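Quiz preparation item.
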């Protein structure tokens, strides 16, 4: 992980965000990897914000939880609701919830209408923080990492930077 106390600014152009996400493709992703990533996220969140945030890493194919932890005391049940809504968006559209936010300029009503979500619109969130985990040689999303509790661009960027660090560590292992 970076030693800087600040996150880089999150990209805001849909195409740039999706391109960045593709660079985060991992060589492998196991329960041990999820635990290491989750712990790194918790440490990073504690270094950048005094606010509590919830970290969740879940398998895409079964919704089995691999990691679920608060960064600090004070998370609320609402954080779990946001985690589920962001995860649902990533699983359905295969891109980060932040990418969807930027594509639709934060217009959740327009987003819901575009996809004819109707009464199910509340099951999805286009707020930053949900990021797909991709593995080289595997089609689609393998898992979803979600952070909920900070500003949505920060929720997104902390996950991106943690995945970047994980990719770098994997490359150094070779």
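Solution:
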């Amino acid at each position: 992980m970076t030693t800087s106390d600040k996150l880089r600014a999150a990209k805001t152009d849909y195409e740039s965000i999706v391109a960045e996400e593709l660079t985060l493709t991992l060589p492998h992703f196991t329960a041990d990897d999820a635990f290491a990533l989750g712990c790194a996220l918790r440490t990073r969140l504690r270094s950048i914000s005094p606010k509590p945030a919830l970290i969740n890493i879940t398998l895409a194919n079964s919704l089995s939880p691999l990691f679920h932890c608060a960064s600090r005391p004070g998370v609320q049940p609402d954080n779990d609701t946001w985690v589920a809504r962001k995860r649902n968006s990533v699983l359905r559209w295969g891109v980060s919830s932040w990418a969807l936010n930027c594509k639709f300029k934060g217009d959740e009503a327009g987003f819901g209408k575009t996809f004819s979500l109707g009464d199910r619109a509340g099951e999805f969130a286009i707020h930053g923080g949900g990021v797909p985990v991709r593995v080289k040689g595997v089609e689609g999303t393998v898992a979803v990492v979600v952070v909920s509790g900070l500003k949505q661009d920060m929720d997104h960027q902390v996950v991106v930077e943690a995945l970047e660090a994980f990719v770098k560590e994997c490359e150094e292992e070779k």
